[in-house]
Amino acid sequence: MKKQLSILAVLVGASLNAQAAQSPFFTITEVGQGYGVGISADNSVLALKLKNDAGSFFSSAPFSDFLVDRFRFDQNCILSGDVCDAFWKDNANFGYQWRRDFLDASSQRDNLGLSGNETDGLVVAMGPDNGTYVGYKASKNAVNGLANSRTGFAVINNGNQVALDGSYLVNGTNVLSSATSVAQISGSQYLVTGTAATGKNRKVTTDEYKECYSGDDDSFGDYRYCPGVDTQAAFWLVDNGAATLFQPSNYYDDDTNMVQTASALQAAKLKDGSWVAVGYSATDEEYAEHSLDLAAYWTLDPAGKTVGATKAIPLSDGKPDDSDASLRGSWASGVNANGYVIGNQRYGTNKGQNRPVEMFVFNLNSPTSNAAVPLKNSPINGANSEAAAINDHNMVVGWRDSRHQTQPVSGGTNRMQEAFLLNAANGSNWYLNDLICGLNDAGSKSCSQNGAYYHIAYASGISADGTIAATAYRYASETDLNNRSNATVVSVKLSPDSLNYEGIASDRVVANAPVVNQTGQDGDGGGGGGGSLFWLTLLGLPFAWLRRRG
Length: 550
Hints:
Blueprint: H1 2-17, E1 26-32, E2 35-39, E3 45-50, H2 55-58, H3 81-88, H4 95-103, E4 109-112, E5 122-126, E6 133-143, E7 147-155, E8 162-164, E9 169-170, E10 173-174, E11 177-186, E12 189-197, H5 207-213, E13 231-239, E14 242-246, E15 262-269, E16 275-287, E17 290-301, E18 306-307, E19 311-312, E20 327-335, E21 340-347, E22 357-363, E23 385-390, E24 395-401, E25 417-423, E26 429-431, E27 438-439, E28 445-446, E29 453-462, E30 468-475, H6 478-483, E31 488-496, H7 506-509, H8 533-540
């Protein structure tokens, strides 16, 4: 109690007296030109460089359009008809070219820092260090000449790629698998999560598979049917160069009349020593002869290579279904050792003239309670928010509609996104763009770092010590930032101030508050505002875990 009171006293004094220069809470380090998509436990940032922007076509994060993530493809282009046509037809930068590259087995993404692309192996998630990672690789016409094959792989301690095959092989070739995360169990044993085709009901010879991966000369495929074969959540125990597959015995709802899909997106060891994985699984509802997906979780026994029953995460909006005013899909994207699960729900009908994605927080310690939706309708009805990652200090990162995007979505544009930081335990949240600013010697707002100005758009990973991997738009001047012009997309690492609260000078503590709003934007109740005691206290106390103790 004395330590907590001491911290609060320092914060109060700082709020009342600080007028001098203040450093930003997060310091920006550029990784390269591209999209930051994750971070390892040792703070190595994983980043991708994209050839095409298919995300704009699907109104989703531009770097997250992996074919096996079914929740990305359960709806058509939702922009106006003219805009959708412009994205889909002969346009070298958007949906058409992305589809063409897929059919031709041309790489659409390259890793930055780690060598690799979709042909020789694209890394999609990091492990404890930059030498342990997982991903997938593509090969042209590997299955009956119909389309590209995708096969997951793992690399442990800079070793060779370990193939992560599924149970469905055609002519000895894996049909479809992909890895999503990797965690160390102990010693040489690692647990990899992902998805893999099963061939249970829909096989590579069915129309759904052909419509997804082959299509016709006009449409080049129908994304509503992707991936075209039944997939199930997959787990691989990787040990000394060998991978053993084990999968759930059921979906949340089994129905043989439709394409069924499921995937595990992350696994974690809870404090009681048990393992749990989160992701999504098929429901008994369908859209275009394809199951809708529901956020789910599984208990695991890695040593015994067994998976418990598929359990749904309870949402206040219920299960996704094909009725009016319903969810189109939901998925859990992360879990931590404390039992907090983060995820997202996508609406299938308009809400405030938008079909939003809303992030949620679920507590495995209260499994019958509905997940909370802390950013729901903030700042306006139908606002978007998406959670991407959580660490063991319950800090969540993701992205949401930029605070100045207060109008309904128009037919020709998507809303600009802005990265956020959120405390899963109490819902307190901040825009990261507030936390990269400080004050200069004159006490005026200063948001420049590295001689440039940044808009932090997507935060996709957070390590144990609070270091964040993100994507930013870099501008050469404050004028360009205000006008949103001449931007360069860069991957960045955001390193938190690691000073000890105890005994530090009062003019340094306020540096850890959202002193000012991002240049050219108005704050709102969700995370803007000045350097008042209210914001200082909200920000300071949840971040006490970041400080090194003397």
